[in-house]
Amino acid sequence: MSLAVDLRARFDADGADPFTVAAEFAVADGETLVILGPSGSGKSLLLESVAGLRDHDGRVAVDGRAVGDAPPEERGFGFVFQDYALFPHLSVRENAAYGTRYHEETRNPEGLLANLGVADLADRSPRTLSGGEKQRVALARALAIRPRAFLLDEPLSALDAPTRAALRTDLADVLADETAVYVTHDRTTARALADRIAVMADGRFRQVGTPEAVFERPATPFVARFTGSNCLVRDALPSVVREALPGGPRVAVRPEHLSITPAEESDAATAEVVRTVREDAVYRVTVAIDGERLDVFTDSPPEGARVALSIPPERCHVLAASDGST
Amino acid sequence: MTTTGRHRIALVLAVLTVQGVAFALAVAAGRPTAYALFMVASAAALAVGADAGLPGIAAAALGSALLVALALPLVLFVTRQDPGLVVEKALDPAVHRMLYLTVYAPLLAALFALLTGVPLAYLLAKGFPGSAVVQSVVDLPLVVPHSVAGIVILFGFGEGGAFPSLSILGTTVGAVLALSFVSAPYAVDSAREAFESLDPRIEWAARVHGSTPLGAFLRVSLPLSARGVLSGGVLAWARAVSEFGAVAVVAYSIRFFYPPAGEVVRSSHAPVFVYQSYLTGSLDESGAVSVLLLAVSVGIFLVIRSLAADGGRVV
């Protein structure tokens, strides 16, 4: 089912400035929209508002039918929380079946637990499960009610890396045919699961587009940095580099598109190696060129303290001057 | 069992034996004060032995002085009772009636406090405009002198009060009202704390997946807070059992239906009964009754401790 949202919500936390979240977006039937943003950007508040768990103004519609004034139990969404929020006094089976009595069209909870590989835990208490197992049960609980749309709030954030990777794969399968809004601060997860990505900061969307568009053609310096691009300020670069770049005061370029080679006397643009960090399959090499730092992904660590840096201009993307949130 | 575990048990047994022998010697010599001094000194000595440092030694000595003040009168009280008289009182039908009333009326008061107080506790945990004022009203009985509470109830609910048809002077209804007045804050506060400690997301999960607010309360919040609610009820019960002032004013002597006799009889709430037998009988007689009452209190206390042993965690 499709989902259309256009809402505003204001939050007054004790001792903090009031915080406003405003967003307008639509999710097509079977599509997964990932809301990507840093902590405190308001993405969880937005998701909880969509679910009806927080007061909000504006419109939430499922297949054109407005549910924005309905209480959470009548909106028909499935929700997966970061910290699982399983019912500790019920068994795994009872947790998975929790919502089925309230809905006419449901899925078999036992079958869902089996599909998610936790059928043998059905009689156990959630207290005895690992984080990954708990999140699978929470997923079954949400799936069982055949939700009109799936709302997921950082479901992988509390898990260790191997568990996260395994569950991410399963999530991709589960969400393939579901209409889903998925909130995360993790760009790897966003890229793996999203049909479209909305980058959020300070309660507003900064860019909405396909993963390819958001990662390769970020609209603003904030989006560029948050999605992992280098953000270059033209005037800070030496002229030999500057001349090679496309026009505009700021350009973004992803670390995987840059390359470094051992520096020779004849090289025009040489950079100083600041730091080299091994990251899974690649090396993240931080280099400085006239004080401007940028990251480069390489297959092998650099040799020597100076390297020649090559920036392919066709991979550079010109950014808007500013987005007001840096 | 580990060697450390065995050592620990041996140490505790040794300390208890030494304390028991010292206590027996002090009582035999007619000098319980000497035992009090011995206990403070031995606690300090143990702290020295455990290498606890100066603060640890001071804490052990001061703490044991408080323990002496709390426990010594109880122990001396029990050891000084005449067993024959205690047995005689334990077989006395009048004492049976009193004990029945003392368990029954506070139980009604605790149930009333739970029935009306748990929903209120839930609202207070959620917070609402003016909840601070309501919380103050709930806690007010904690600071009102209990004899004053009794007078207040007589004025409020007695003749010419809010409910003219309600007869409360010397009735079970009056006793239960008085006991509820002094014990309800315990039930409400314990339940409120239990509700406050719930992760709001657990209730959210219930709501999103189909439960109405009432359904989420009954299927999730209440079961998860059951331990806090229950221990609040038992606390209220215990508080009501030990109440004297309010009930002495409202219902010094109570008419109530006594099932073993199959008829309406008269008796008094236990603390009042003990006071009465102290005034009209002898110290020995009231002491013997007090032992029985103490046994009831200790029983309730053990129930509370077992309920409090493991707080309701959430996943």
3D structure, described in words:
The complex is a heterodimer of chains A (326) and B (315). Helix content of chain A is 22%, strand content 31%. Chain A has helices spanning 43-50, 92-96, 109-115, 131-144, 161-175, 187-193, 211-216, 221-226, 239-242, and strands spanning 3-11, 19-27, 32-36, 57-62, 65-66, 77-80, 149-153, 180-184, 196-201, 204-209, 230-233, 250-253, 259-262, 270-279, 282-289, 292-298, 306-310, 317-318. In chain A, the strands form four sheets. In chain A, strands 6-7-8-3-9-10 form a six-stranded mixed β-sheet, sandwiched between helices. In chain A, strands 13-17-14-15-16 form a five-stranded antiparallel β-sheet, with no helix packed on it. In chain A, strand 14 and strand 15 form a beta hairpin. Chain A starts with a strand and ends in an 8-residue tail after the last strand. Chain B is mainly alpha-helical. Chain B has two domains: 3-80, no CATH class; 87-308, MetI-like fold (Orthogonal Bundle), CATH 1.10.3720.10. Chain B has a two-stranded antiparallel sheet with strand order 1-2. In chain B, helix 4 packs across helix 14 (283-308) and helix 5 (93-126) packs parallel to helix 8. Chain B is globular. Mean pLDDT of chain B is 88; it is low at 311-315. Chains A and B meet through strand 6 and helix 4 of A and helix 9 and helix 10 of B.
User: So what's the overall shape of chain B?
Assistant: globular
Please describe the biggest sheet of chain A, giving its number of strands, its sense, and whether it closes into a barrel: 6 strands, mixed
CATH fold title of the largest domain in chain B: MetI-like fold
**Count of individual domains of chain B:** 2
Average pLDDT of chain B works out at: 88
Report the CATH superfamily of the largest domain in chain B: MetI-like
Please give the domain count of chain A: 2
Which strand order does the major sheet of chain A show? 6-7-8-3-9-10
H/E topology pattern of chain B: HHHHHHHHHHHHEEHH
Instruction: Say how many strands of chain A there are.
Output: 18
CATH architecture label of the largest domain in chain A: 3-Layer(aba) Sandwich
- CATH architecture name of the largest domain in chain B: Orthogonal Bundle
